[in-house]
Amino acid sequence: MSGAGMRAWLLTDTPRSRGQARAAALYQGWLAFRSNPLAMVGLAILILLLAVAAFAPLIAPHDPFVQDLGNRLKPLGTPGHPLGTDSLGRDILSRLIYGSRITLYIVTLVALIAPIAGLIVGTVAGYLGGWVDMVLMRITDIFLAFPRLVLALAFVAALGAGIENAVLAISLTAWPPYARIARAETLTIRKSDFISAIRLQGAGPIRIVTRHIWPLCISSLIVRVTLDMAGIILAAAGLGFLGLGAQPPSPEWGAMISEGRRFILDHWWVATMPGLAIFTVSLGFNLLGDGLRDVLDPKNET
Amino acid sequence: MALTDRKTEGRPRAPFPRWPLRAGLTLGSIAATMLGLLFVTFMIGRVMPVDPVLAVVGDRASPEMYQQVYERLGLDKPLIVQFALYLRDVAQGDLGMSLLTSRPVSEDIARVFPATLELATLGTLIGVLAGVPLGVLAAVRRGSWIDQIARVVALIGYSMPIFWLGLMGLLIFYGILGWVGGPGRVSIFYDGMVPSVTGMILVDSALDGNWTVFRDALSHIVLPASLLGYYSLAYISRMTRSFMLEQLSAEYVTTARVKGLGERAVIWNHAFRNIRVQLITVVALSYAGLLEGSVLTEIIFSWPGIGMYITNALLSADMNAVLGGTVVVGLAFVLLNVLSDLLYKFLDPRAA
Description:
The complex is a heterodimer of chains A (302) and B (352).
Chain A: H1 3-11, H2 18-34, H3 37-54, H4 56-59, H5 92-128, H6 130-144, H7 148-159, H8 163-174, H9 176-190, H10 193-200, H11 205-241, H12 253-261, H13 269-296
Chain B: H1 2-10, H2 19-47, H3 52-57, H4 63-72, H5 79-91, H6 105-140, H7 145-159, H8 162-176, H9 201-208, H10 211-248, H11 251-258, H12 263-300, H13 306-315, H14 319-347
Helix pairs in contact in B: 2-14, 6-7, 6-10, 6-12, 7-10, 8-10, 8-12, 9-10, 10-12, 11-12, 12-13, 12-14, 13-14
């Protein structure tokens, strides 16, 4: 099919199949998204992040772990070390490049665990109603009223420092808003006619929730997840900075700032560069999230 | 569902005021939230890998000694009884002994909490004084350059790691320019020069009339407080803007303009008056956030507050201190949350 033909097929008002209707909806969403330059910048930042993480061994000029004590604390622009070296002579650029993998790993895990947990709790509470709803929402409210960072600190202190525990701690404090959203969506959906029709056809509650309610909750959850990503990155970096996330030899960005903190007045770049990386990535997620919200959820425009 | 709908619609007006019931429900929900918080900290204390008995008796204690302490700590009792004992202790203000300072955790916290309170209060003040006007202006001149600036300011606030921004602030304003005092609350030679009354050094030095110390303390607090203030500003200005936009598009604003009211009066006497209630809740939430968010800031600025206390305790596996600190910050957080809820209900007649 030619480009123009494809466009016409996508923009038709009378789709012939379910697949075409879905593709058309996606394409129109993309057109709306594309007209927002800031959101496109966010998307570009994240594509770059993905590419850097995927091709880290090819891009990185040095091994991120190899120490070279003769080349300690070299400033920016040193030949062979464009972003300088840290206190053990490791190349900062290479460490940043490998660190992107850790950031993506943490963000992906939290972005899978927290919304799914919230989705299950929220839809069950909203669909079943009654005392189940009351108990689940009470628990959600309790978690929502907790101080997130301090609670994550206490969790990590109990479980031991490490990336997986940091992920767990952040997820444990991040799921309640998703449960709230999923419940609200479920409450509006569950009384609609199409759900009654499905029920009359003999569908059980599990089928209704998983096949008919979950898909409709997804878009608002995605928006919320994207907007939360920046917060997740900042929380993970904060835990790393406190020495509770990824452990020292690992090139996690927060831990790198913590290492560079000791030399901040004389060798400023060691702590500055990882901070810029964190800032760029969370900015990317914030821009993308704003753009997605405008496309998927126009009623919440602020 | 139809049944319950009919019930609420057809209900006659209650013959007695309903507020005692509502107050009871609110108190119940506060209690439930606090109980939940204490339960979580209790469970964290249970799963920790450090043996609490060994922490007391040391590695070389005899089995009898071990057993004695094991029973004294109540570890032989069922979990639910242990939780009840824990609740009793917390209710009496007993958070256990700190291994690091060998003093009761509650005393330690009473000593460090005012420092955090001082920092968070000043930060919130900065956030409100700068954030509210910025948000109002951004809404009134929607789409103008000031709106764009407000947007960028907020976006940066949401994306920048606070501990990194703090480091950069120290580097630039202390290291390079030398405009402000460095880490800590006062310079070392002023330490302990004013009697501690409230534990807040600005208040204490002012009460003492010692303006040298006051100026020095001010030069130390200005950077961390502005930093926290910036994060508070990012949030408050965004919320103010969206509340104002909602009001400005309402018909009563058009009416006010049509009858010839000045723009200033329309904005401040009409629209702004209506968002004050919402703003109070936002400020309370932001204040609670700063109490918590000060953890990382305190580390950067060596600020001897509760965040630093928790972190130091954490690094030396002093679980009583960590959990005690978590409980105190958590309770403050919950109380502020509830307070903002209550204020909203009392001040906004529609919410009742």
